[in-house]
Amino acid sequence: KRLAEDTFDYDAWFEYAKLEEDHGDSNAVREVYEQAVSNIPPAQEKQYWKRYIYLWIYYAIYEELEMTDLDRASKIYDACIAIIPHTKFSFAKIWIFAAKLHVRRKDLTAARKVLGR
User: CB-hemisphere CA count at 13 Å for 116?
Assistant: First the structure.
């Protein structure tokens, strides 16, 4: 109901994703995260983007830890980095998480490339 009223209620998306993780199948969880991250904040101000970025992070962590799909997790981080309006602000956390994923994959060259962008 909360999401029907406000699709930018990222806390509601977190709760919905958690429910699906606890009771749903992987396709349902992925669908929830995909729907959630498709709701890009309307204003390019960092305060509106903080919770939104955490949706991306939780999605990538879900793919890495629960689904053990490291390639998909990497693509999620790349998509998130591409969406952020870097001319206005950035989020160091997303860059670090993306680089650490590459380090865990033992791909140090890719980790350096992520941090060198």
Answer: 6
Q: What is the pLDDT of residues 58-70, one digit of tens each?
A: 999 999 999 999 9
Report d(CA 114, CA 110) in Å as an integer. Answer: 6
The Cα diameter of the chain in Å comes to 45
3-state secondary structure 30-75: HHHHHHHHCCCCCCCCHHHHHHHHHHHHHHHHHHHHHCCCHHHHHH
Q: Rounded to the nearest 10 degrees, what angle do helices 70-83 and 46-61 cross at? A: 170
Global pTM reads: 0.93
Token representation of residue 21:
């993780």
The pLDDT value given to residue 24: 77
Q: 4 Cβ partners below 8 Å, 6+ apart?
A: none
Residues 5-26: pLDDT tens digits? 999 999 999 999 999 999 979 9
> Do residues 96 and 117 touch, judged by C-beta distance below 8 A?
no
